[in-house]
Design a protein that fits this description.
Order of helices and strands: EEEEEEHEEEEEEEEEEE
Distance between the termini: 28 Å
Number of helices: 1
Shape: globular
Number of strands: 17
Oligomer: single chain
């Protein structure tokens, strides 16, 4: 057994409702021999309603619209190790949303928002990772830096032409054997003819917990969050987290007074002590909203 290679992992979620709605999603992160290559991505099939609040940083909660849709997503990254911790490689992403339907007077339908009639997106890109975390599922020390690009073009089969850029910076501090402080900065921007499905999003179970994923969406996004993790005993732990973020049409329009905030806490139960794989239960609170989350592995 090669003990120099970090543990690969595959996480699968499957949900089916009595209304014939379903979610099937698999995330994989596979390290090959001696970590010379890393294969990471997502395969997902969904027939599940989603919420739309409009586009911009000042959308209102009472304008919530629910629309039905089907989604197929395939994202895969193959990266080559250049030196310990440093990976460089390529990305391929196929995304299709179809069978979109809602109420006749919904803004998503009446204002002919880009992507409201469905999308077929196909893009390639480049990614660089610098990963010095001691564990990819539940880091206690080290850092993680990722920069990626994706270009969606007609010759690849995409019916929208745009570019996407993402920057993800994380740092982990082991303050004590039972105390860890984790921090993350995330920035995203998209340029071109961008459908609403591919705009940058605030909210969800990983970024600004408390807000619905996509509560705010636009072409630019900045967010910072931190989490304090305390291990009570080998199987149980507690966390407290908080963060701020904003979306906008351009970075120059961002205003510190308009940044959205979220905070909350949660519990951890360790399923696998060797791999430090946790079930996390989080309750996040935003501005007039809150949400409860149950997931495998940490938010970041």
């Amino acid at each position: 057994m090669d003990t120099t290679v970090r543990t690969s992992n595959i996480r699968t979620a499957a949900i089916y409702t009595t209304r014939n709605q379903f979610i099937f999603s698999t995330d994989y992160n596979v390290f090959l021999k001696e970590e010379k290559y890393q294969l990471r991505g997502n395969v997902a099939f969904l027939k599940f309603p989603d919420n739309f609040y409009g586009i911009g940083n000042d959308t209102r909660l009472q304008d919530e619209e629910i629309f039905d849709n089907n989604i197929i997503n395939f994202t895969s990254r193959l990266m080559r190790k250049i030196k310990p911790g440093l990976f460089v490689g390529g990305i391929y992403n196929f995304y299709k949303m179809f069978n979109i339907s809602g109420e006749a007077d919904d803004i998503l339908i009446t204002e002919n928002i880009a992507g409201s009639g469905g999308v077929r997106l196909s893009g390639i890109g480049f990614q660089i990772n610098y990963d010095l975390r001691d564990n990819v599922l539940n880091a206690t020390k080290g850092c993680y830096l990722e920069f990626s690009t994706r270009f969606f073009q007609n010759f690849l089969g995409s019916n929208y032409l745009f570019q996407r850029y993402e920057l993800d910076l994380r740092q982990y501090f082991k303050l004590h054997p039972k105390h860890v402080l984790a921090a993350q900065f995330r920035g995203e921007l998209v340029e071109g003819d961008v459908p609403f499905q591919q705009m940058t999003l605030l909210g969800g179970d990983k970024l600004l917990r408390g807000y619905y994923r996509g509560r705010y969406r636009e072409k630019k996004m900045l967010a910072v969050q931190a989490e304090y993790r305390y291990t009570i005993c080998p199987r149980f732990g507690l966390v407290a987290f908080g963060g701020v973020g904003e979306v906008g049409d351009k970075f120059s329009s961002f205003n510190l007074n308009e940044f959205k905030h979220s905070y909350g806490g949660g519990m951890r139960f360790t399923l696998n002590k060797k791999e430090r794989l946790n079930i996390r239960l989080d309750y996040g609170i935003g501005n007039g909203v809150s949400n409860f989350y149950i997931n495998l592995a940490e938010a970041f």
